[in-house]
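REQUEST FORM: STRUCTURE PREDICTION
Request ID: SP-0412
Submitted by: Lab K.M.
Chain count: 1
Length (residues): 119
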Amino acid sequence: MAVVKVREVRVEKKIEDVFKRIEEFFRKAQEVIITSSTLEEETGNIIITFNKSIVSMGEVMTVNLTKVEENITEIYVESTSTGEKTVYDWGKNEKNIRLVLELFGLEEKNEKKRLPYTR
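STATUS: Completed
RESULT:
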């Protein structure tokens, strides 16, 4: 049984800008791989794989973007532990989602609890 965390928010930005910002951040990140990214006129999708660590068997995060209006984009983020027997994720899925929300000022950066994902 994998652990899954989900968040859905809206931002006042064009879908192209949201997609670009998320993709650029995770392309620079250590210990992650963007396994898929597609952007169309009204939707976007980015799949990010987080490597195994001492406290985690790894996670897969899916970011789905939907154009609501010209300057409003809905962001749906789902982070799932990859270990099928995982019953506790040690907060990793929540941290993964928080990384996306911090990019748009929807969450305050918490440097104490944050792992050094970026170079």
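NOTES: The helical segments are 15-28, 92-103.
Reviewed by: T.R.
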